[in-house]
Amino acid sequence: MSDRTGSTASYRQRESGYRDKALKMYPWVCGRCAREFAYSNLSQLTVHHIDHNHDNNPADGSNWELLCLYCHDHEHSKYSIYNGENGSAVIPGEKSPQVKHNPFANLKSLIDEKK
User: Could you report the per-residue pLDDT of 65-85, keeping only the tens digit for each?
Assistant: First the structure.
């Protein structure tokens, strides 16, 4: 198995280092859905590399965000779909696509219309 699938011992060892740092650095809350975690379900909180490069682990944590399993999978599926891939493969070193559509952009005006 390859490091890309997270199945080798070296990958797990490297992951445990930055995971421990990220969990000490950030509150145990998913950065997307705001779900809060306790020690009992902490295994469901993952460290997402913003630039999708697992070798880019700055000491200040600027390339990490904590995401729950569901949001992490969703983030990687968005990237795969954007690149026209089938599955959750991510090309290391490439930046994730920037979302340009904001579905809530005119939410206030829609709410005001109904009042």
Answer: 999 999 999 888 876 555 555
Concatenated DSSP letters of 42-96: GGGEEEEETTS-TT---TT-TTEEEEEHHHHHHHHHHHHHHTT-SSS---TTPPP
Burial profile 30-39: b = 16 or more Cβ within 10 angstroms, e = fewer: bbbeebebee
Q: The tokens 């880019």 sit on which residue?
A: 56
pTM score above 0.85? no
Residue 19 sits at the vertex; the CA angle it makes with 13 and 24, to the nearest 5 degrees, is 135
